[in-house]
Amino acid sequence: MKTSKLYSLFVLLLAAVLVVTACGESNNSGGTSSNTTPKVENLPAALAEKGDIKIKVIRKIGGDDHTAQFLAGAKQEGESLGFKVDTFSANGDTLKFHDALEQAANEDLDAVIVSHGDDATTVELVKKLREKGIEVVAFDSVEELEQVDGVTSTSQNDQSLAQMALDHLVQETGGEAKILYLWVDGFPAMVRRNQVYQEVLAANPGIVELDRYGVANDNTSVDTQNAVATLLNKYPEGELDAIFATWDAFAIGAHRALVEAGRTEVKIFGIDVSNPDLEAIQAENSPWVSTAAVDPKLIGSVTVRLAAKKLAGEETPVTYSLDASLIKQEDLTSAAETVKMDDLNAIIPGWGTSDAFLEDWMKELKEANK
Amino acid sequence: MTAKVSKKGINWFDFLYKYGTLITIVILIVFFGVATDNFLTSNNITSILRSISITTIIAIGLTLSLAVGGFDLSVGSTASLANAVVISMFVWHSQNMLVSILVVLVLCALVGIINGFLVTSFKIQDMLMTLATMFVIQGVAQTYTRGATISQNMIMPSGDYAPGSIPALFGQLGKAPWIIIIMFVAVILVHLLLTHTKYGRYMYMIGGNSEAAKLSGIPVRKYRFIAYVLAALFAGIGGMILAARVMTAEVNAGAPYLMDAVAAAFIGFSVLGSGKPNAFGTFVGAVLIGILSNGLIMMSVPYFAMDIVKGAVLALALGITYYKRKH
C-alpha cells in the first residue's frame, strides 16, 4: 500500500518535471513557466508584486449578444494574461448593478471594469472602489467618471457610428428619403448618436423624418416589431423609403416587421452587430443593408488591457474611444459562406484587431500563459 | 320621484356595466379611423390581432387560474421558460418540432403541477405563492440559458457555433394567419370549457365561494390543481408562439406579458356584465389594449404616454366592475 502511494507520487513528480522542461524548451525567449505565476522578463515590477490578479467585470445591461461578446472578450483577454476574471451582468436592473459595485469594494479585487454605469450613484460607488485602491476602467458610462482620479472611460465612437450609418443612408438614397427614426432618449450613447442625426438632417433637407419610435425595456425588439408593423400600415408602399435604427434591438424588430409585412423595399440602416444581426442581414431579400459597429469582443479586450496597464503602474488616458467600421450587406453576401462574428475580420478591414495598449510585456505574458 | 331617479341611475350603470368596454372599443375604432388614414385597413387589423395574440394566450391561462379564485403570477416566467426551452431544443439539441414542443408542454405541465401542489397544500394566498414560483421559474430559465440570448448560430461556451436551426414550419406558427388562428382556438376552447361544461361551472363555483363548493361535494382541490396546470400550459403555448414570432430566446422575454395579461383579464371582468373572469372578456380586454397601442402609435403619441392611457382604461374597467358589485 505504502509503496504504491510512493510510486504514484514519483510518477506525478516525473510528469511535472517533464511538463516544465517541455515548456522551457518551447519558448526560450519568454523564460520558463512554472504552474503558478509565469515569469516574464519585462513584467512591470508593480504588477509582479501584486501576485495573482483578480478582475471583475460588472455590466448593467445584459441578455443581449453584445453583452455576451463583450464579457467573452474581457474574460479571454484577461485569462490570456494569466488574470482571474469574473463577469457579472445586472440584466438592466439598476439596484442589482449598484449592489454588485458595492460588493466589489469589499472583495479582494485588483481591478473592476464597469460597463454602462449611467447614473450619479455609479460615480459614488466608483469613488469608493478607488479609495480601496481598486483600479477602474469604465465603458459607455456617465461622463462624470472622467473626473474621478485614475479612472479611464472608454466608449464606442458614437460620433463615427452614427455618421457612418447615416452617410450610407444618404449615399444609398441620393439624399432624398422619407424615413422612420428608431431612437430612445436617456442613454449617453443615444444622446451622442442623436446629435449626429440632427446634424445630418440639417445638412440634407431631402431626408425627412416621418415618424419616430423607441423604447428600452425587456421586450424592446418585439415592441419595436409591433410598432413598425403599425407604422408600415400608416405609410403604405411608396411613402416610406428607409429606417434609421440607432440600436440593433431596434433594427432586429424593424427587420422582422418588414419581412412579416412583405415590405422589404424599405431599407434599414443600423448600428451595432451580433450573430443574430449578421444572420438577419444575410437572409434572402433582407431589407437590412448596413450596420455600423465596433467589435464588442475587442471592447472587452481593450478595457482589460487598460486595467492591466493601470495595475502595472503605467500611464493611461482619461478617455479612449474605439473606432467604428461599416458592415455592408453586399460585402457579406459576396463572401462564399455565411459570415459570422468571427469571420468579420476577413471581410471588414481592421475588424476586431487593435493593438491599442497592447504592450510588449503583455505579449510576452500571453506567450508565457499559453 | 327620488326612487324613479335612482332607478334610472341604476339602469344607466347597468347598461354601462354591460356594454361599457365594448362601447369604448367602438368609440376608439371610430376615433382612430377618422383621425388616421390607415387605421381601418385589413393590413392594420391583422397587425393588431397579431400583436395581441401572445398576450391573449397567456391571459387565457391567467383567466383559468382566476376562475377558481386563484391568481397565477408565474405565467410570464413560464412563458419565458417555454420560449427558452423550445428555441434551445432546436438550436442546441437539433431536435425536431414534435419532440421540442412535447418537451416544452411536459415541462410546463410540471410547472403547473408544482404551482398547483403549492397553492392547494398550504394556506398561503395564491398570489404570494405564485409570486415565489415566478422568481424560481424565472431563475431556472435564466440559469438554463446562462443569462444570454439563444439564437441560431450562437456561440456555445465551448467556443463552437450552435449546431441546430429552427424549422421554417415552426416560424410559420408565429406569422399571420396561424398566430391569430391559434389565439382564437385558445379563446374558444376555454370559453366553451368555462361556460358550457360542468367543469367550468364547478370552477366558477369554487371561485365564487370555495367553502360552499366544498360543502356541495365539488373536489375543490382537484379543480384548483387542474386550473393551475392549464394556466401553465397556456403560458407555455404563449411562450412558444413568442419564440416562433421572434425566432430567438431573449432573457425574460415572457415577463413583460404578465402585466398586459393581468390587465386584459381584469378588463374582461366588465365585459357584458359578467363580473367574473371569462375567456371572451379577456380577449376583448386584449383587443382594447391592442387597439390603444396601435392607434396611439399611428397618431405618433410617444410610447411613455401610452402607459398612462393603458392604466387609465384599466382603472375605468375596474371602477365599473366593482361599483356594480357594491351597489
TrEMBL record, chain A:
Main subcellular localisation: other
Signal peptide annotation: 1-22
A GO term, aspect molecular function: carbohydrate binding
Keywords, sorted A to Z: Signal
Compartments it resides in: Cell envelope
Matching SUPFAM superfamilies: Periplasmic binding protein-like I
Any one annotated GO CC term: outer membrane-bounded periplasmic space
Residue stretches making up the Periplasmic binding protein domain: 57-315
PANTHER family: ABC TRANSPORTER PERIPLASMIC-BINDING PROTEIN YPHF, D-XYLOSE-BINDING PERIPLASMIC PROTEIN
Similarity section: Belongs to the bacterial solute-binding protein 2 family.
Protein name as it appears in the record: Sugar ABC transporter substrate-binding protein
Automatic annotation (TrEMBL), chain B:
Record's subcellular location: Cell membrane
Entry membrane topology: Multi-pass membrane protein
Keyword Membrane listed: yes
Pfam families, per database record: BPD_transp_2
Matching InterPro entries: ABC_BtuC-like, ABC_transp_permease
The entry's keywords: Cell inner membrane, Cell membrane, Membrane, Transmembrane, Transmembrane helix, Transport
Entry's Gene Ontology molecular function annotations: transmembrane transporter activity
Superkingdom: Bacteria
GO CC annotation, single: plasma membrane
Positions of transmembrane segments: 16-36, 48-67, 99-119, 176-195, 225-247, 253-272, 279-297, 303-323
Alphabetized PANTHER family for the sequence: ABC TRANSPORTER PERMEASE PROTEIN YPHD-RELATED, ABC TRANSPORTER PERMEASE PROTEIN YPHD-RELATED-RELATED
UniProt name for this protein: Sugar ABC transporter permease
